[in-house]
Amino acid sequence: MRQIIRRSGETAPNAPRDPAPSRLTYRIQRLWLTPLFRAVLRVGVPAFAIVAFGGIYLSDPTNIQRFQDGVSDMRRSIEERPEFRVNLMAISGASPVLNEEIRATLALDFPMSSFDLDLEALRIRIEQIRAVENAELRIRSGGELSLTITERRPAMVWQAREGLWLIDAHGERVAPLLARPQLSHLPQIAGDGANEVALEALALIDAARPLEDRLRGLVRMGERRWDVVLTDGLRILLPAENPVLALDRVLAQHDVQELLDRDITRVDMRDPSRMILQLTPAALTELRRMRDTDIPTGG
């Protein structure tokens, strides 16, 4: 006889499956729908695993040394590749003397890796050379370190307390005159602070061109004004303000009356409103003699 009463815990044969999830599955699905939970599983857990593994690995000094050696070997293998090698240095814009000075200052031992060259530090070292106004460095293809130099051009010779210096148009020292004696023909200036007003000195030298070879140089007096010195010792004392205008007045007077060819030792223009002449001792003696001479009158 068939048993028609089902015992507790037994399922009926061919009973349909309940589609509802279990309580655990439901909770897991709900958690997965939470953005924070997904972020922790996707990012946090892998990151934690990596950090934990790295910490365990690097806690051993042997592993640290092995890691550092590996990084060093990798870097060395990259730096020593032919495309990163610098084999020579080319300098443009510099005179032969300055070219040699730059090479001696840098003292680079080629060939070398481009990673070992600090171009900014090299540029600063080069621009510390007096004759260099500015420098531009770059590494070109073919392993060439290219230096483009803007050299200070000597414009005058400045007689300073410590000796004779070549200076550029802005008064910057280029080199001692002894280093470049072939430039001794340049116009000369002297006096404390003369280099600081080099542009004004050049303007006076340009204005004095009509004197041709008679111009010996300029002397800075009291760091405020100029004296123009001629080869025969004659001096033109210029004012502190508008010295070029005062010199032009003297030269105009010279063109009309040959002023600078007379027996005078000084033309004083410190007061621009009047011109004061100082005679030579011989001319002064002759002038006194003429004044003391009685001129007879007819009776």
Average pLDDT value? Answer: 85
Class by helix and strand content? alpha/beta
Task: Evaluate the radius of gyration.
Answer: 45 Å
**Number of contiguous helices:** 8
Tell me the overall shape.
Answer: elongated
Which spans of ≥5 residues are poorly predicted at pLDDT below 50? Answer: none
Kindly state the percentage of residues in helix: 25-40%
Major β-sheet strand ordering = 8-7-6-9-10-11-12-13-14
Report the end-to-end length measured between terminal Cα atoms. 196 Å
β-strand number: 14
Let me know the largest β-sheet.
Answer: 9 strands, mixed
Beta-sheet strand percentage?
Answer: 15-25%
Order of helices and strands: HHHEEHEHEEEEEEHEEEHEEH
In short:
The chain has helices at about 25-30, 35-60, 60-80, 95-105, 120-125, 200-205, 245-255, 280-290, and strands at about 85, 90, 110-115, 130-140, 145-150, 155-160, 165, 175, 190, 215-220, 225-230, 235, 265-270, 275-280. The protein has about 300 residues and is an alpha/beta fold.
Please describe the topology of this protein.
Blueprint: H1 23-32, H2 35-58, H3 61-79, E1 85-86, E2 88-92, H4 96-106, E3 112-113, H5 119-127, E4 132-140, E5 144-151, E6 156-160, E7 163-167, E8 173-176, E9 188-190, H6 198-207, E10 215-221, E11 225-230, E12 235-237, H7 243-257, E13 264-268, E14 276-279, H8 281-292
Parallel strand pairs: 2-5, 6-9, 9-10, 12-13
Antiparallel strand pairs: 1-3, 4-5, 6-7, 7-8, 10-11, 11-12, 13-14
